[in-house]
Design a protein that fits this description.
Blueprint lengths: L2 H24 L6 H8 L3 H7 L3 H17 L12 H16 L2 H16 L1 H14 L1 H12 L8 H16 L1 H6 L6 H19 L4
Helix pairs in contact: 1-2, 1-6, 2-3, 4-6, 4-7, 5-9, 5-11, 6-7, 8-9, 9-11
Pfam families: TetR_C_7, TetR_N
InterPro entries: DNA-bd_HTH_TetR-type_CS, Homeodomain-like_sf, HTH-type_TetR-like_transc_reg, HTH_TetR, Tet_transcr_reg_TetR-rel_C_sf, TetR_C_Proteobacteria
Protein name: TetR family transcriptional regulator
Length: 204
């Protein structure tokens, strides 16, 4: 990567971070490209060189939110490992993502704007839902292997992951609570996994 390319990438990231801050503080409609340029310490022309419109810029923010979620490595179902070990790995990764400050900031911006623009909210919810399908696929594979009881995989996935969000996402997003302490993160993950397996795992 050339020096010019590195500078261009840094400017693009500065614009994105400035936009996140401005959208979060002032909302989508009240935020102008001029404000974003000033906050990013770049010219308005530079902003438009990277993003053709404010909608395009917001779409890039949604893309970052998606990338944060997609960065969580999916665990492929394995017949040779205990179910608890596999679920713990998946849910620990999920918990780390939920507690990441960057992810939370992006989620706040996307959800707040989604309230004002249902179409934007639909895109975000749809893309995030697609990401969570990996857990559903894992559950279905475990069912086919005879290790989990019959249940709609999507329902069981939401039930499991929803317990993590109940403690480590929605209180922080909606009520401004502090991130869940690490010890509590461990407790929530272990409890959620054990409750899930206690109900759905096939006794052998």
């Amino acid at each position: 990567m050339t020096i010019n390319q590195k500078l261009t990438d840094r400017k693009r990231e500065a614009i994105l971070q400035a936009a996140i801050a401005e959208f979060h503080s002032n909302g989508f409609e009240a935020t102008s490209m001029d404000k974003i340029a000033a906050s990013a310490a770049v010219s308005k022309r530079t902003v438009y060189n990277h993003f053709s419109s404010k909608d395009d810029l917001f779409a890039a923010i949604l893309g970052q939110l998606w990338d944060c979620s997609a960065a969580v490595t999916e665990t492929v179902y394995r017949t040779d490992l205990p179910l608890r070990d596999q679920l713990m790995e998946m849910m620990q990764q999920k918990m780390r993502m939920l507690c990441d400050p960057s992810f939370m900031n992006l989620a706040r911006v996307a959800i707040v704007e989604g309230i004002h623009s249902p179409e934007r909210a639909k895109e975000m919810i749809s893309r995030m839902g697609q990401r969570e399908e990996g857990v559903s696929v894992w559950i279905q594979a475990a069912q086919q292997d005879g290790r989990l009881k019959p249940v709609a995989p999507e329902f069981a996935s939401h039930l499991l992951q929803g317990q993590l969000k109940l403690f480590a996402f929605w209180p922080q997003l909606a009520m401004g609570q502090a991130p869940l302490p690490e010890a509590e993160q461990v407790t929530v993950v272990q409890t959620a996994v054990d409750m899930f397996l206690g109900y759905y795992q096939v006794a052998r």
